Amino acid sequence: MSVSGDNGMRQLQEQLDAIESEVSSLQQEVEGLRSEKGEADEAINAIDRLESDDIVQVPLGGDAYVRAEIQDVDEIIVALGGGYAAERDKDGAVESLKHKKETLDDQISTLQEEISELEEEQAEIEQRAQQMQQQQLQQLQQQMQQQQGGTDDE
Fold first, then answer.
1. For each successive 10 residues of the chain (154 residues), what is the average pLDDT?
2. Which end of the chain, C or N, has fewer beta carbons within 10 A?
3. pTM value?
């Protein structure tokens, strides 16, 4: 194999490694967004079932909970993002969470498009690498035939 062929293959492998790493990172991000979307679904279902005088467990952090009685189901605090929250009535809270789910769906779609583009690029690079390997193999075979032809003449 030629030195330039080795360098070309090495560069293609580095590109493939970078793409695989990026795809893996994006897939993890998609899974995180899907998990967040699932939490929004759970919150919507919980709000729909919520009634005054219900006893619930409120997380305190560190796997610690406290029991609490719901006094007013029309005062629900919903995270808005960026560390901000707002008080909403039951319907408003559900609408906020549905909007959040739509935003998450848009983000997931965008990431999946990026993943598809990267996978297409990966396939193209793999095809180039395969073509390069075939060319190198053909060159080796030609060299071997020339060497054999040269020894037969002697």
1. 70 95 98 97 93 89 93 89 93 96 98 98 94 90 84 54
2. C
3. 0.76
